[in-house]
Amino acid sequence: MEAKAPDMYILVEREDPIAVVTINRPDKLNALNWALVAELADALDALDRDEAISCIVLTGAGNKAFAAGADIAEMADKSAVTMATGGFESWDRIRRIKTPLIAAVGGYALGGGSELAMHADMIVASENAKFGQPEILLGIMCGAGGTQRLTRTIGKYRAMELCLTGKQVSAQEASAWGLVNRVVPEGQHLEEAKKLAHEVAKQAPLAARFTKEAILKAFEMPLEEGLQYEKRLFALLFASEDQKEGMRAFLAKEKPAFKGR
User: Fold this and answer.
1) What residues does each domain of the chain span?
2) Rounded Cα gap, residues 105 and 124, in angstroms
3) What is the architecture of the domain spanning 205-252?
4) Helices 223-236 + 205-217 axis angle, to 10
5) Catalytic positions, please?
6) Rounded to an integer, what distance in angstroms lies between the CA atom of residue 23 and that of residue 65?
7) Residues 6 or more apart from 240 whose CB is under 8 A from it?
8) What is the pLDDT of residues 41-51, one digit of tens each?
9) What does the alpha-carbon distance between residue 147 and residue 150 come to, in Å, rounded to a whole number?
10) What digits encode the pLDDT tens for the residues 78-129?
11) Fold matches, 10-201 and 205-252
12) CA angle in degrees (0–180, nearest 5) for 30-71-174
């Protein structure tokens, strides 16, 4: 692994009520090594606990890559035991982030980069973005959720083609398949993602977090169980100050002042 001082792979910019987290390894096309993913998990955890932040945007430095995959030089000599036990705890922490998360993708989002983008709740892509799971070309397979999230998003047959051939797809094709929310002119993905983040951040924070939680549960639960889970979260929101404020403001034809309580 290249020598680098701690806490330099990830940049965090606060623009309350949103934050922008940038993968800062452009000389390596933002390739993901274990230290970077751990630092990213730390940064997202800290923002997730921050009541002033209502939405997070995740992007990569430069326009060439969101993240062009895992750091192959770091992985090449690892044992099966090491790969089975080391590093994935950080990915699990990213998966558990409760604050709405938007990926702003410019350039390559391949392998672990594509999997990281799929950890987000929405994806805004520049028209030069490329998505793919090329692990098969290295004699391995997805390891950070690619086979699972991709299949749930674009279906069995398209996921099989991408994961079994290593094929890359354009932002436009990814959008048509439902993997990307919107495609914007090259270089405008971050600004468009920030606009979307501000739209989300206007909403009641508890309601936004509960909504994210319920939608993610839809991938894990049978319909009847999911409906009951949704009803419980719906009812819980009636114990919040924001519910009272939102309905008061609606009846008074005023703009609500949500406080996340």
Assistant:
1) 10-201, 205-252
2) 6
3) Orthogonal Bundle (1.10)
4) 170
5) 70, 112, 115, 135
6) 10
7) 204, 206, 207, 261
8) 999 999 999 99
9) 6
10) 667 666 666 688 999 999 999 999 999 999 999 999 999 999 999 999 999 9
11) no
12) 60
Pick the closest to residue 123 from 100, 105, 139 (CA basis): 105
* Burial per residue of 84-102, b for 16 or more beta-carbon CB atoms within 10 angstroms, e otherwise: eeebeebbebbeebebbbb
223 exposure class (CB count in 10 Å sphere: 0-12, 13-18, 19+): exposed
| CA–CA dist 91, 226 (Å, integer) | 25
- Whether the link from the prior residue into 17 is cis, omega within 30° of 0, is yes
Environment class of 79 (CB within 10 Å of its CB; exposed 0-12, middle 13-18, buried 19+): exposed
For 10-201, CATH number out of 3.40.449.10, 3.40.50.10580, 2.30.110.10, 3.90.226.10 equals 3.90.226.10
- Classify 260 in phi/psi space as left (phi over 0), alpha (psi -120 to 50) or beta: left
